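Q: Structure for this?
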Amino acid sequence: MKIELTDTTSSKINAALVQARRAVGAPATGMILSMVIVTDEGSAYDAVKAAREASREHPMRILVVIRRPGKSPRARAVTRLDAEIQVGGDYGTGETILLRLNGELTAHADSVVLPLLLPDAPTVAWWPESAPEDVSQGTVGDLSQRRITDAAAAEDPVHELSVRARHYHPGDTDLAWTRVTPWRSMLAAALDQKPGVKVTSAEVEGEAYNPSVELLGMWLADRLDVPVKRIVSEGPGLTAARLNTPEGQIELDRSDGLLAHLRMPGSPDRQVALKRRETAELIAEELRRLDPDDVYRATLLHGVQRLTVTEKPASAKDAAEQVEEIIDGTEPATAPASSSSASSSSSSSSGSEAPKPRRTAKGGSAK
Amino acid sequence: MARTTAKASTEARDPATGFSPPPREADGRKKQAVNPLRDPNDRRLPRIAGPSGLVIFGVTGDLSRKKLMPAVYDLANRGLLPPGFSLVGYARREWANEDFAQEVHDAVKEHARTPFREEVWQQLAEGIRFVQGDFDDDEAFEKLRRTVDELDKQRGTGGNFAFYLSVPPKFFPRVVEQLKKHKLSQAPMGAWRRAVIEKPFGHDLKSAKELNRVVHDVFQPSDVFRIDHYLGKETVQNILALRFANEMFEPIWNRSYVDHVQITMAEDIGIGGRAGYYDGIGAARDVIQNHLMQLLALTAMEEPSDFSAEALVQEKLKVLNAIQLPNDIGADTVFGQYAHGWQGGEEVKGYEEEDGIPADSRTDTYAAIKLEIANRRWAGVPFYLRTGKRLGRRVTEIAVAFQAAPHLPFDKESTQELGQNALVIRVQPDEGVTVRFGSKVPGTAMEVRDVSMDFAYGESFTESSPEAYERLILDVLLGDANLFPRTAEVEQSWRILDPIEDYWAQHKPEPYTSGTWGPAAADEMLARDGRSWRRP
């Protein structure tokens, strides 16, 4: 059922919730977390849809904070809270409350959200887009154990990774990181089959504005302690990851966004289904663990500027030349300068724990 | 509750605590040290099986079509199967590889839990093979061996194969002997060969021992996986989380507070087309020996030192060994047979009228037994186990009934409707936990009545929560034996059941009307103890 409350307060919403539950005949049970989605009217629909789907695996109370600061002075002068409660029936498991914050109230979202959080249950905040620079310091971020951002939705995704690194707090996570889990698990499984093999270098390949490619590259660089090259391709999404070993190259290559090929020395080529996942699946994965993701932290703080960026090599010869231009991920200060053109970006702002960028910003990354 | 489990298990693995148990082979931790991409803190990476393949005997059967093949697809869809995973079917039917692939395709489309995706199917279909033959056919087994060798070359399965014997038990000896004869059971260096067998694991102690001897003659005991699909269910695994990850249940989980325990597995269907299998076996051998004994062991066992297969089996065995049979088997067990009646608005036949059942069959379609566990924790607490076909509804649950409060400071009238406190673990359907306790009825008078507090298992909401077979097949490929009953457990269960079956063989089953909760004698059995069956 759906209840609409205009010009209301949190306590009226709470009362209406109890009423709605009675009317539906379901007691308040089973919900394991509160999810606060901070968004605007534009992206609210998609976000709520994804969260509701994820709530089938993780029954939760979804609080959607929709900010409407107002475009005219007159609109800004009106401070008002409107709420829409959706419970039971077609609305899936759990409860959804859309909160529309008008005027001055947009700056005080926490005062609305706090009374509506589930008692004694974790809170997760999610910014489908335009997340603040430091998510843990915001009014909503303060209340939550886990904060989900999406670098891919930012204007400059790769720069966004540096911002996230600069302001990292335990509990932060990013959907761009979630997107590479299947790749990471497949690469780890591939290395399982080659115990003790020494990886000498690696490369990751994907479309320009896809921070997942950078994250996968940084993860490999951080875990393997080898130089990693970032190659720009047409996409879609991530298209390949390669690990160079003395025995030959381990390659996971996905050109169509659906089916990948795994090539390993000494093994026949194999196909691997590696579909790009829906937002709902990503959110469901995020909610399976609510403790800080240390591997994400290590990856993020590795520093995006330590990857070498190149265009996709036109031929094998080019590729061979470019291998020589790799920056040594372990000692960036002594690495030779890269002469290859960076098509997408390399960030100018360094992470707090990351070494200084070797190159100045190029392309569209200067901000 | 699911979250609590996860947290507990990660803490156990955390090397930072300094108290983690020494590495075990089953942990796979030795490998992790070698692979720099693996990190115990990286909890997103799922357990993917290493290069391997699955050979299914009796692939045309119902179980294979409805459960095994869809489970394999679902595993692939979740990205848990290794690249190059191969599926080989072995059956009498005259099929080419493509026909078999089509059969798998149809089965997957109809029964898989996760949505059908063409690219996943493509990945799987490449590794599907079919070998046609009888179990006596040497040539066919030779072809199977060639197929397996080819898969190693073409798909990189690395010589690792699991043989799933989805065939009637009377064929087990022949199949495993053929596997031995054609060197299929022999793993190449550094690889493994495993056997997976389904219940029934024999029909009494003697036959179970014989079966174990035959299988262990060919496969190492640690390479034999006995499927009890109940152990693959989330709710059954949750019993351990509920008991050992919480503080509030364990202190009252003993004879000082528990009055008795009822473990029920009821089915609303009859025997259907399984007359040939069922007649002569009966409900107790079919269900109590494996499923209910396992549920009892998990409910009653002490805390294992860790969650390795060895520690678990040790504790389960201890409880099974402490089980005592009733002194008077006639009084404390009941077996029955369903008679003609109406079930859920449908008129149904009695057992003796079913096709293929002799009119004087003594097979039990209902069995109820009372057991006691002779240890400090449970002495004097009866465990009532019951199972049956054509009962009121399909349900499996474990109900722990607590003693009455020692003193009630209320009028007798005000607590008349107060029953026993109970904690019910609902295994299926509608998985979850119910707690029943007394609460004041709103109003001016003091009146206390039973209410239920409900926890619905979060995962059960989603259609795509892992199915028991998925989990178990993955565990076989990973070599993780946690959720599989061991030889000793199977034999101990038969030791308990054999004397009861012997007694029943001398007597006639009690008839009960289909659609009811069993014969009146079962109600009388509990009434003599001053108790009654829960209506689940």
